[in-house]
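Consider the tokenized backbone below.
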């Protein structure tokens, strides 16, 4: 068994105690997965306690996401118990003491990631650990499918595919976070799907191929469903992508000395002329003119 070399991906060590007086088995595999750490476990009923004292002192704060394939998980953390049935997922903080009880034979997949990569606050993380997100939840369903794919095919995928799948898992954790922060209703309708699409777009603005199809695939919905989510919004999905790209372009024009061509490529425009034309349509100035005006008209600034 090869453990991840990245300190951000070192899984928390656990102590397990079998709960039945019968022949015991415990099958476990652990490996690094696109910058995350993953464990797959199958076992007889058992009680598992985290050994936090063995976590390297310099390891960043981490969270775990667990998908219960079969059996049941009871998560005990902070004096509260959360029951997660087969098909459910739960997100929890691994920097605080926790304990699992699996009262039946079970199969589970656990993925650990740095808390900073998800943007989850401590307060929201505490709430997440108190409620499982079942496969009937839109966000939970997305995360569940991704974890199933990671567990079943992760080791067979190429490096680029593993990286893409790990990024999608982090995106899905953000969706679950939004769902719970909104009292469990945010992602249940069009507004939640539109918000999830905005999250995906922000993360992948540098992808020249970013489109409704790409975002729909990330969210595991049809393109038609995705477009329908924006019918009550102030902008279409295409307008959203263009606005986000131009916002980031303005930030870079004002805050860096990067050439216009480099900025264009960093936000997904392979054709700098197209970028300049799009920018001018919105601002009535070319990117270079806009930069000079924002900087008080001093100097010519970098050229495209």
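A designed sequence for it:
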């Amino acid at each position: 068994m090869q453990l991840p070399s990245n300190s951000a991906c070192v899984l928390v060590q656990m102590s397990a105690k079998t709960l039945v007086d019968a022949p015991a088995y415990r099958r476990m595999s652990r490996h690094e997965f696109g910058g995350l750490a993953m464990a797959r476990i199958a076992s007889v009923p058992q009680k598992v306690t985290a050994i936090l004292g063995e976590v390297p002192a310099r390891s960043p704060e981490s969270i775990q996401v667990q998908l219960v394939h079969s059996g049941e998980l009871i998560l005990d953390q902070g004096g509260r118990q959360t029951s997660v049935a087969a098909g459910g997922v739960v997100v929890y903080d691994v920097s605080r003491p926790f304990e699992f009880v699996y009262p039946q034979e079970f199969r589970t997949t656990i993925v650990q990631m740095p808390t900073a990569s998800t943007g989850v606050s401590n307060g929201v993380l505490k709430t997440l650990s108190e409620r499982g997100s079942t496969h009937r939840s839109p966000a939970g369903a997305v995360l569940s499918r991704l974890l199933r794919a990671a567990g079943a095919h992760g080791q067979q995928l190429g490096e680029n595919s593993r990286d893409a799948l790990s990024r999608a898992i982090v995106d899905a954790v953000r969706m679950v976070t939004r769902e719970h922060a909104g009292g469990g209703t945010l992602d249940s309708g069009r507004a939640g799907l539109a918000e999830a699409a905005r999250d995906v777009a922000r993360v992948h603005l540098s992808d020249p191929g970013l489109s409704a199809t790409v975002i729909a695939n990330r969210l595991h919905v049809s393109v038609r469903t995705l477009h329908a989510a924006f019918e009550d919004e102030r902008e279409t999905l295409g307008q959203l992508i263009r606005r986000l790209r131009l916002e980031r372009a303005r930030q870079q024009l004002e805050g860096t000395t990067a050439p216009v061509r480099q900025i264009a490529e960093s936000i997904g425009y392979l054709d700098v002329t197209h970028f300049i034309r799009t920018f001018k349509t919105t601002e009535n100035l070319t990117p270079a003119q806009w930069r000079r005006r924002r900087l008080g008209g001093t100097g010519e600034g970098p050229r495209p």
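The two ends are 51 Å apart (CA to CA).
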